[in-house]
Amino acid sequence: MIHLPKALSAWNSPAFAAVLQQEIEHLDAGSLPLQQGLSQGSYASHEGLSVMLISTSELPDCIRARAGIHFTGIIAGCNCADDPTPVDGHPEYCEMQFDIDRQTAVTTVTLLQEPV
Tens digits of per-residue pLDDT, 97-114? Predict the structure, then answer.
């Protein structure tokens, strides 16, 4: 379960975007649907994760934020000792929606497949 209490506290302040970005970037890698957001690689790495806030809106029960997520994807080889395939990272991008509950800061994350 994801909680973004600092972002909730910063809502309606000039610091909101920076606080939200920082909180998302410090989440555990497994809590975001990065693997499902891959477009080229076979493994999503948390290294190089950065967040770009696209839009925010205030709903009666939540704060909704749409963000672009830049991260690293890896095309993994077979990991055999004689496998010459280098394990290089390459840039990946996806968009996610973050719905932050206005009472509890519990956050629902949705991978956006198509531009909204």
Answer: 999 999 999 999 999 986
